[in-house]
Structure formats: structure tokens, C-alpha cells
Design goal:
134 residues; alpha+beta; 3 helices; 8 strands
């Protein structure tokens, strides 16, 4: 079902400041920066030298789920994104096994990736994102 970890999402208040930390201080390679209108975030992806990337998420407005996350918990790890094949089948299987889904159907995220979230109430307070690359 899961074929790897795609990325770890980190919620931040100021994307440009966080980019400086990850790029200039930690030495990670900034891949790209995108605005994801549907999720109401601006994101930056960093390669880590392996398959797993780091995604920084800055809310673009107070109605963003990431803004609400930061308001409740502060900056920090927001989600873990798992690579899957056939995301629709995986969502059905997880629902059939009793997990609560945030997204019943996948949406399109950055780089044309199909994404869907599993509710943290079903996963020991960890927001999991499923990702299927095109």
C-alpha cells in the first residue's frame, strides 16, 4: 500500500525566513516554490539528498488550514506524506478499515500529484497525506 515517504510538511509563519534557514544554514537544496490556491498555502520543497523531501508551508490567509494549525499548535511538523500507487483504491481500503478521511477523493496538489489527507483522529494525532505522482 505505502511505497515510501514522499515528504515531511512543516508549517511556518514566514516562508522566506524558513527558506533561509533550510537553504543557507542547513545547506539543503531548494527545489522550487509554489502557491497552492486550493490549500491556501505557499510551499517550498527541499531535497534532502535522499528520496524524502521537506515541504515548508506558509498560509496565504487566516482561513488556511495551515494558519489554523499554527494558531493552535505553533510552527512545526504539520504532516507526513506517504507515497502510494492507485490512491483511490488506497483511500477506499483505509475507509473500509475504519479510518476517518479528510478527503474522500484525491485532489491535485503541487507538480500534478494526486493528494488526499487522513484525519489525525484516526492516526494517533498525526496528519497523514497520501501522494500519487503522475
Amino acid at each position: 500500500m505505502v511505497i515510501g515517504v514522499d515528504h515531511i510538511g512543516v508549517a511556518v509563519n514566514e516562508l522566506d525566513e524558513a527558506i533561509s534557514l533550510y537553504r543557507d544554514v542547513l545547506g539543503l537544496k531548494l527545489e522550487d516554490v509554489h502557491v497552492v490556491e486550493e490549500q491556501k498555502v505557499r510551499v517550498a520543497f527541499f531535497s534532502t539528498g535522499g528520496e524524502t523531501r521537506i515541504e515548508l508551508l506558509e498560509p496565504t490567509g487566516s482561513e488556511s488550514p495551515v494558519a489554523r494549525f499554527i494558531e493552535r499548535r505553533g510552527e512545526g511538523v504539520h504532516h507526513i506524506a506517504l507515497k502510494v500507487r492507485n490512491i483511490e483504491a488506497v483511500l477506499k481500503e483505509l475507509k473500509d478499515k475504519g479510518l476517518k478521511l479528510v478527503d474522500e477523493k484525491p485532489t491535485i496538489g503541487v507538480e500534478g500529484t494526486k493528494i488526499a489527507f487522513i484525519h489525525p483522529k484516526s492516526t494517533r494525532n498525526v496528519l497523514l497525506e497520501l501522494c500519487e505522482k503522475p
